[in-house]
Amino acid sequence: MSSAPVYDLSQPLATLLREGTKQAHTDAETSQGARLLLGGQLPKDEYVRFLMMLWYVYDTIERGLDRHSTYPTLEPTYNPTLLARASTLSADIAYLLEVPEDQWKAHPIHKELVTPRLPEALETYLSRLQALADSPDPSPLLAHSYVRYLGDLSGGQSIKRIIAKAYGLESEDNKAGSDLGVSFYVFKELRSANNASIGEMKKIKDWFREGMNVAGERCEDEAKLTIVEEASNAFRLNMGIFNTIRTPEETKPATKERSQVSKRRGESVAEQEPPREASWPLSSVAAVIAAVCLGHFVLVVGGFTGDKGYQKLLFVERWLSETFLKTATDAN
């Protein structure tokens, strides 16, 4: 049984946080969800679903920080104009879904995310953040700011390029600086409204670390230890979010889910009803076999992939069904 780590609480808080979260940081970075994200391998819908979960996280963190903006340990790093991410996440989600920003919560991807309830890992994360915001000492919220904001600042530009390439966002507009669909990864300079370069982002991180050290000087050793321990917990909670990311294989609708997928694609209820049991003459059975063989051939060579291909397939299925029904009726 491993013993609890021993910290030299005389060190600056930023140093304590860096040293105290090394293992948790490594675990989070090597999770399957993180690898898929950083490899640009997530289907676009799944990436949007991930952004929606992040929006809930940042919205909860930032409402807590706004609520306690003057608290001694939170005030030194409080700068929503510079750091806040909920608004950029909302803009990116809307752009990727091609809907007005005030309507993305009505999109089927979001409805699926919240029905019947949010994923358990996300609920656990949000509950923890809310409990800290409601506690007499909200200082541990600083640990969540540290994990999220410094993480975004450290890898923001690299991830931005990966995401832009993966989802076709490398347009002339984005090259001109509008950052459509990837604004979450873009920060402004410390003292201007210009987009921050990698060098400027380092300045922001240094500013944030200095603020954390000031916060550490304003609290007792016990509170410093609580913040460090909460940072490791924040990494674990983030890893829980990564673990809810579904692989490309998991996002493919299974056969048994076909009727539900068909409903979302606009088929009528009548078309989804299972066929009634019936006895068919041999000639009709032969017709079915021929139709299946034909259908398989057309499926393979006819390009029935993607949404357009799926609609083509539905048309052929209906045609085969009507033909078969007529043949069976005539035979009977």
TrEMBL record:
Per UniProt, the ranges with Basic and acidic residues bias are 247-276
Q: Where is this region: Disordered?
A: 246-276
Q: Share an example GO biological-process annotation for this protein.
A: heme oxidation
Record field: transmembrane:
280-304
Keywords from the named record? Heme, Iron, Membrane, Metal-binding, Transmembrane, Transmembrane helix
Question: Keyword Iron, does the record have it?
Answer: yes
Its recorded name reads Heme oxygenase
Q: Which residues bind heme b?
A: R18, H25, Y146, R209
UniProt GO MF annotations: heme oxygenase (decyclizing) activity; metal ion binding
